[in-house]
Amino acid sequence: MQALYAQLLVGLINGSFYALLSLGLAVIFGMLNIINFAHGALYMMGAFVAYFLLNLGGINYWWALLLAPIIVGIFGMILERTMLQWLTGLDHLYGLLLTFGIALIVQGVFQNYFGSSGLPYAIPDQLRGGMNLGFMFLPIYRGWVVVFSLIVCLATWFLIEKTRLGAYLRAATENPTLVRAFGINVPRMITLTYGLGVGLAALAGVLSAPINQVRPLMGADLIIVVFAVVVIGGMGSIMGSIITGFALGVIEGLTKYFYPEASNTVVFVLMVLVLLVKPTGLTGRAA
Amino acid sequence: MTTLTDDTLPTTPRAMRDEMIVFAVMALLLASVPFTGVYPFFVMQALCFALLACAFNLLVGYGGLLSFGHAMFLGTAGYCSAHALKVWALPPELGILVGVAAAFVLSIVTGYISIRRQGIYFSMITLALSQLLYFIYLQAPFTHGEDGIQGIPQGRMFGVFDLSKPTVLYYVVLAGFLGGFLLIFRIINSPFGEVLKSIRENEQRAISLGYRTDQYKFLAFILSGTLAGFAGSLKVFVAQNASLTDVHWTMSGEVVLMTLVGGLGTIFGPVVGAFAIIAMQQYLAGFGQWVTVIQGSIFVVCVLTFRRGVIGEIAHYFRRSL
């Protein structure tokens, strides 16, 4: 039973990353009509920024949790201003190709300087050790990742679905021209939205740094799984992305316990099944 | 919304004639390679990728479906051909047949799943499916995991052509490439190809005219996947191995890049793009991961400023269809 709970916890942690990343993808897709292939590379950058902050600037984990998403978010906004904005009005597929190119550049540069091996990032002192819950031993840091990710996901949901800013955002997704006519600076909102989505990816990167080592290719395979998550859940609903992300993480964790050979592939197999039964995805509208 | 390809070009009989002339020049140039001292291995490798890119282009350039998983056909056909040649000791022609048949079956299955969604979702689904296959091949015993299938015997094609001789192998690969290319050329100019283009331009209108667009897209997917598999089977004879690199998503990305550089939806673009990218990899092999950075930069530059690609720009300048 211990092993089962341990795998469930691993599943929840992976689910946190799936949720944070697919949430960002959905927010970006809503405003920019772009599937951000660079999302995995920006997640990796988040982890590296945390690593640099600690080792070069002596800035600890807690500040990194705040600063890394801001730094990577600004980098993302520069990308949006200099490149992505020129794709407005073109076929969606160009956005995929452009961000794929950006991902190759970012990953290639990091690989040149850091190879393919992982760099260690220590768990902060306050979150070391573990708790005995009676039925299992819970490493505190892992519990923290799950709880904190859930809070961030729900906060993002609240921001978009329940606040005035979020209402502008949803309105601009539906009809940007009309929203502009009301005097709202839609291009700036698009830039900020891209920054927000990228920031969420970077935050996931910082969270994962102490668990998975900091590696240049840490986001490359992850992003493909997240794409499958997005296909399963659809990008129409924020809450849908969060729930699908966590649920698939848990299913993956269970697979690791019951049938480890399939743990790499279970999300893709589920995607195939969902497509066969309900081609529009679980929460999705038709694309 | 602008589409992926340049639609202002004429498709008159005169344009067909231009294309046939360019094809004849290309075939002559390629046929004379063994007499020029150019390294034949490089050209053979480029020809395999050129055929792969042409097959990919059939789907994206004429059907408007951007597959991000075409490596799965290349790799699957490669593995199956390699297994048939090495373990079952089949002659080359049957080895190729086994690989192509495997790609055919795979394209039916993956096509059935992926054409249920369009646009961006189609790309993500094909990418996820190819990653699924990657993990299966990583674990399956017959692929030998990280080592791949190595030391594949080349044998005698039809009992006559000794493929271990570089010149003979070159002409066999060239014949395979030209055959595949002509088939794609024929498909594009057939009534089927015309319907496919109309679906790319405006699917709703094609539906309202009574075309079952899903069936056309499905057939295009199968043709594209099977031809990509043919490229993978040919590649086995050139490289004499089949490895995980051929199924990895980076390979799918390279095919997209080749076609983008040469020109999406142009007939000769993928060939030019494949030669350009393979040559670049050859010359920059010593620069490690900077090759990835350069490839990424080419993606960015092409998408931002050079969407027609090399052949697309030339065709646009001369107002011809190439």
UniProtKB/TrEMBL annotation, chain A:
Pfam families: BPD_transp_2
Positions of transmembrane segments: 6-27, 34-54, 60-79, 91-110, 141-160, 190-211, 223-251, 258-277
Domain of life: Bacteria
InterPro entries: ABC_transp_permease, BCAA_transport_permease
Topology of the protein relative to the lipid bilayer: Multi-pass membrane protein
Gene Ontology biological process terms, A to Z: amino acid transport
Family: Belongs to the binding-protein-dependent transport system permease family. LivHM subfamily.
Name used for this protein in its record: Branched-chain amino acid ABC transporter permease
Source organism per UniProt: Bradyrhizobium cajani
Automatic annotation (TrEMBL), chain B:
A Pfam cross-reference name: BPD_transp_2
Protein location: Cell membrane
Annotated membrane topology: Multi-pass membrane protein
Organism of provenance: Bradyrhizobium cajani
Membrane-crossing segments per the record: 20-42, 49-74, 94-113, 120-137, 168-188, 218-237, 257-280, 287-306
The keyword Membrane belongs to this UniProt entry's keyword annotation: yes
Annotated keywords: Cell membrane, Membrane, Transmembrane, Transmembrane helix
Main location: membrane
One GO MF term attached to the UniProt entry: branched-chain amino acid transmembrane transporter activity
UniProt-recorded name of the protein: Branched-chain amino acid ABC transporter permease
Entry's Gene Ontology cellular component terms: plasma membrane
